Amino acid sequence: MAHLISRRRWLAGAAAGLALLLAGCRAPQAEPKQIQFWTLDLAPKFNGYIQGVIAEWERQNPGYDVVWTDVPWGSVERKLLAAVFARTAPDVVNLNPLFAANLASKGGLLPLDPVLPPAAASGYLPQIWQAGRSAGPDGAPQQYAIPWYLTARITLANTSLLAKAGYSAPPRTWQELPAYAEAVKRRTGRYALFVTVVPDDSAELLETLVQMGVTLLDERQRAAFNSPAGRHAFAFWTDLYRRGLLPREVVSQGYRRAIELYQSGELAQVGSGAEFLRSIQASAPGFAAAPRPFPPITGSDGQANVAVMSLAVPKQSRLPKPAASFALFLTNAANQARFAEQARVLPSSAGALQQLELQLRRERLAQPAEALVQQARLLSADTLGRARVLVPASPGVKRLQAIVYTQLQRAMLGQISSDRALAEAERQWNAYAGGRWPEAAQQHAVQHH
């Protein structure tokens, strides 16, 4: 009996040993390759959507594991720079174009053309795809970003003030603004609009210069704005302020003040996204009956501005092709259409935009407030057909804004003439640009020798 038990034990041990041996001979299970993906302020509201897109891409790309991290908007630059320094940068990161351009100029982002399919650009709105191009460390423009979601500014007008001023709609072009602003001030005692000249606030006024035909910088990054169009634009804003047709605070307070004045009935209109209408309906219901959406004010060519959020691949990524593949999947027409509906934004995909417009035109909403928001969203979508990023995201653009705004403030306050203010802005920018891009001037000289 003892002999039988020992034989059974030997057999069991041999079987276990054989199992271990066979297990050791099997090909080892490969660990999933991790793609680190960072977004800005999307959790927890869009957890279900993002996790669903990730799961579908992983299903189509076995062997990869996408790890999603959502970063607060205010800390993304600090966190990303720290990650780059520690060599732990993500593989795909959601950025605004300005920060993306700054990173690209310092060699922190991967040029995407080598890792994208040849026809990748064809699925996106052409003007928006172009916004992902910026200068690399050598100054040559390359594609560094894939566009994701957009917002287009429209005009939200207080129709009660408009009617008192004798207008049924706000002006469509800047050329029509002075007469309108004067009528609003004279007949209502209120102001037509608020465009801030605080250097570190909204870029709206810089965008208006472009709409008025001003070329901001030349190909060497030197000032091109001291031109007939530039002199006209500086005189335009200086004159409006000195005539008392803009609120005094435009030189000292930012865009937030425009919202406060608009909601308190002191401003005839404000430029904003369609979703701001919903926020007014929630926060100022007594005022909600008056606002109506209208097309944005533009220059004579009708070009409107659009704000872009994009996806980029840091240069440190060890998986650049799969990272770019995931970014393209996240921004394809089907996924963008779903995200645009959930987040109430606009898609950069041409197919998704067409789908969104069809859906908005078909919907019949019983609630007047919801119908108004729908009308504003449709107007924003329609605007994309003639929209582009008016102030290209290039390194130093914030410095350019600070210089231009500071000198324009001086002209508005009567310290110097608008022509002198423009010339001083040109001098200051060129001094800065000469230090930052000295090789650009040398290359230009060689090319024209």
Describe the structure.
- The chain has 449 residues and is an alpha/beta fold.
- The protein has two domains: 33-150 and 308-368, Periplasmic binding protein-like II (D-Maltodextrin-Binding Protein, domain 2, 3-Layer(aba) Sandwich), CATH 3.40.190; 152-304 and 389-438, Periplasmic binding protein-like II (D-Maltodextrin-Binding Protein, domain 2, 3-Layer(aba) Sandwich).
- It has 18 helices and twelve strands.
- It has helices spanning 2-25, 47-60, 76-85, 97-105, 126-130, 159-165, 177-188, 204-211, 228-242, 255-263, 275-283, 320-330, 333-343, 350-362, 368-383, 397-412, 418-436, 438-447, and strands at residues 33-40, 64-71, 92-95, 133-135, 141-143, 146-152, 154-158, 269-272, 291-294, 304-312, 346-347, 387-388.
- Strands 1, 2, 3, 6, 10, 11 and 12 form a seven-stranded mixed sheet that branches. The chain has a three-stranded antiparallel sheet with strand order 8-7-9.
- Strand 4 and strand 5 form a beta hairpin.
- Helix 9 (228-242) packs across helix 16 and helix 14 runs antiparallel to helix 15.
- The longest helix is centred in the first third of the chain and has 24 residues, at 2-25.
- The radius of gyration is 28 Å and the shape is globular.
- The relative contact order is 0.15.
What is the strand content? 5-15%
- Shape summary: globular
CA-CA gap between termini? 105 Å
Q: Structural class, judged by helices and strands?
A: alpha/beta
Order of helices and strands: HEHEHEHHEEEEHHHHHEHEEHHEHHEHHH
- Biggest β-sheet strands, sense, barrel: 7 strands, mixed
Rg estimate, integer Å:
28 Å
Number of helices: 18
CATH homologous superfamily identity of the largest domain: Periplasmic binding protein-like II
